[in-house]
Amino acid sequence: MDTLALYRGFVTAMLFCGVLDDAYPDEGNTGLVESDLSPKARRQLEIDCQLFAEVAASLVGDVDDEEFGRNFYYSREGHGTGFWDLGLGECGERLHALATSFPQCEPYVAGGRVYINASRLAQVALFRDPPTEVSRYQLW
Hints:
There is one protein chain. By secondary structure, this protein is mainly alpha-helical. It has one domain. 44% of the residues lie in helices and 4% in strands. The chain has five helices and two strands. Helix 1 (3-17) packs across helix 2. The longest helix has 18 residues, at 39-56. The protein is globular, with a radius of gyration of 15 Å. The protein starts with a helix and ends in a 5-residue tail after the last helix.
C-alpha cells in the first residue's frame, strides 16, 4: 500500500470537507491546500496514515490508495460515508471500526496554517494497546 497516496487522499478529503476557521464560521474554510498544514499536523497525519495502512493492508487486496485515504478520513471523522458505505460487507465494517478507533482530527486554522486538535496528539501508541471496541473485530 502506497502510504504517501493514502496520506494525500486523507488530506484532500479533510480539506475538501472544510476546516474550522473564524473567517468562515458557517461552512468552514474549503480553500486550503496541503501546503497550508503546519509541520506538526503534517507529521501527525503521516504517522496516523502509516499506522492505519499497516493494519488495514492485511484486510484488503489491491485498492486505490488515494480513495482508501479519503475513506479513512470520512470514517474516522464520522461523515455520512466511509468504509462501511462501500459495499465491502464485513471487511468494510472492520475498516470502519479501525478508522473510528483513531481520535477525530478536528482541524482548525490559526495564523494561516492548519492545525489538528493538540489533545489528540498523544494517541500515537494506539496499536500497541488496541482499544477494546476495535479488538472485538479481531483486526489484530
